[in-house]
Amino acid sequence: MRTTIRAAASLLAVSLAVSACGGHSGSSGLVPSTPGGGADTLGPQVSQIATPPRPAGIFAIADAGERGASEATHITVTLAYNDQAQLDQLVKDQSDPLSGRYHQYLTNEQFNAQFAPTAEQEAQVVSTLQAQGFTITGKFDNRTIIDATAPTSVIEKTFKTQIHNVSQGRFGTKFANVEPATLPDGLTGLVKDVTLNNLAVAHTQSRTALNTPIAVPGPLSARRAAISTFAGNVITNPGFESGTTGWLQCGNVNATVVTTHPHTGTHDQRDGNGSAEPNGDTGLCQAVTIPSGGTLDFWVYQLSNEGGTTYAWQEADLLDSSGTRVVQFYQTSANHAGWVHKSYSVSAYAGGTYYLYIGVHGDGYTGAYTQQYVDDVNLSNGTSTPTPSPTATPAPTPTPVPTATPTHSPTPPPTSTPVPTSTPAPTPTPGSGCTGSASDNGALKASGGGWLATGVAKAFDFPVQHGCNGAGQTVAVEIDTPILTSDVSAYLSAAGVTQTGTITNVAVDGGGNSSSSDYGETALDVETISGLAPGANIRVYNFPDLSSQSIEDGYNMAVSDNIASVVNSSFGGCESGDTAFTNTTNTIAQQAAAKGITFAASSGDSGSAECGSGTPGVSSPSSDPYFVAVGAVNFTSNSSTGALLTITAGVDSGNGFSSGGGFSKIFAVPSYQSGISGVNSGGRNNPDISLPGVSVAVWDHGSQATYDGTSWSSPEFTALMAEVNQLRGTHYGFVNPNLYALFKNTGYADYTDVTSGSNGAYSAVTGYDLVTGIGAPKGWAMANAL
After folding, report:
1. In the beta sheet, which residues pair with residue 331?
2. What does the pLDDT look like over 479-510, one tens digit per residue?
3. DSSP line for 238-288
4. DSSP secondary structure letter of residue 672
5. Are strands 173-177 and 163-167 parallel, antiparallel or unpaired?
6. Is the pTM of this model over 0.90?
7. CA distances (Å), 409 to each of 300, 331, 345, 415, 761, in order?
8. Model confidence over 608-654: pLDDT tens digits?
9. Is 548:77 a contact under the CB 8 Å cutoff?
């Protein structure tokens, strides 16, 4: 529970997070080597804190100058635990079946008495802050976090740092410290770290799937070229010299023909503009019949200030009559002020009639732009191709990236790995609430496309198929919007699943807004859990945004409440962008572990490039050692029985989705990963396990959508653990050591190995890998064997 003290209405809600990453003993192997606190101590007496954040990609910042001295700032102070070394050992023992403390979890009162800051220590922090000029605005029952406000000048004086305003792209104007901070004497030993920023540190880990339709003009009819510039070209008006003749508007926002900087001639097509992104899809399309031996080539001039394809992108596709992508040639957020040639073989589609669509997708954000100019479109049998004129001198544009997008062919899906038939797991003694009959017996897929609960439950043999539906369990979803239960009802109706558990929205720091662009993530999380564990109760801890302060408060409230036994996080960002946030979330998760709460997080949707292009990086909080990092797989199943047929790494080349994986630059290899063949010695390896992440049906504000992402994998694991807890009549809490011990002992008796697919720098191989981790759990077998 959180006690809120109302602050003055004029104060700005700005975050400063001070982390409680107390020193962990080397024996735990869960954090970087830092001297651990001894008995009856507070841990190391750290005074320098708050390394300035260095976010990259979509989280990149631009300095906007000093923050106003009188601007009021909201801070979040996280206190250090007492007896850190003993806490490390306790959590280790709680996951060790040979220990007398195995699954002997602490109540809130026991944790507060043994490890939480004492009431007197909390009072000292409060007194010190008040003496410096802070106003206390909230506290939690676990005495781990204190919320307070003060003018910027007070913060700079107290922590001996400088704070600047920064521009963070689509996330707006934020602030961040530009120098390391120092704790005042009254806080040294009580407070461990400070995040002097309110930067967005995470984004939701889901993407619109390849088969989410684009609005098209109507039924297809073959159109032959009325104007043929190139011999053999079936495209009408290929250079747009006759305006939109022969072309149709696809998408919900009209594209235009312009004279800005044509590749040849005087006209070209423009999708999007330079001041804001379209709210939806925009582009011209043309109905074409693919010739035998067909080759498609065209020229594009692409501009974008997006750091990735999470929110907006340029694309080219063949669409069917419903607007569904039959093939997507590329999806990118390229920024190159010059014409680039694209060429693709389409001979595999010879004789078919499709809409050729070249356009832009956006979310309507006015602080970013994504554009695509198109010219000289040629679709022929390959015997004659256009000879381009010299590239025109481009008009002034934003600074481009130095390298042009190369010409390439669509990336073929990786070869699927056939799944061998395995011996069914023995039937264990059911725990409380297991009825012995299957609960998910609906359709495998939605009529509009995308997997439903039964499709996953049958293919991966979830305990719900054996009568364990999560009854008596409570799980939590951490996210920045509440859920609309009408969407859950629509999803469950389509899935043919009856929910008996409850759904409760819990507002944190004022709560989120269901009109947020992240709402689809909330719907995905809650609908997935409701479908796979329909007997479980779900608490949706929703906060205003995905900033460090909001996420930390959301986590801490769930742990302080100590109601949910599994906590899901379907979001993440580069772990090195804000190391204080990364350490803080791991520390809060350690408290959860001591209380028997499992923390799970999506491993990311950008493959090995979670920190942007260049050096591979991983996503936080999934890289935290006290979290289960959940990656994604793609799969096929028997259309009648639902049994798993093939499985490969979670990749969708159509929208750029690739399951996140790699190794941490912050956390050392934890003890539970030691001795595992395939584990990289450079740091904590991601992911731990993987579950389906490609093409899930979601009901979003009354409409069906289809998404990809590890955002789907993580709530699947959350539902699985709720059923495991029900079956075994206990909580598995910090389950990571058990997952790896099971793998060491039984190999792939309880998991399915994934040996094909890549996420960029790494490839799926036999055994553990940095794409899918151990592999995919065989739900019922794993639940029985843990």
Report:
1. 315
2. 999 999 999 999 999 999 999 999 999 999 99
3. TT-TTTTTT-EEEESB--EEE-SS-SSSS-EEEES-SS---EEEEEEEEEE
4. G
5. antiparallel
6. no
7. 15, 12, 7, 17, 20
8. 999 887 789 999 999 999 999 999 999 999 999 999 999 999 998 77
9. no
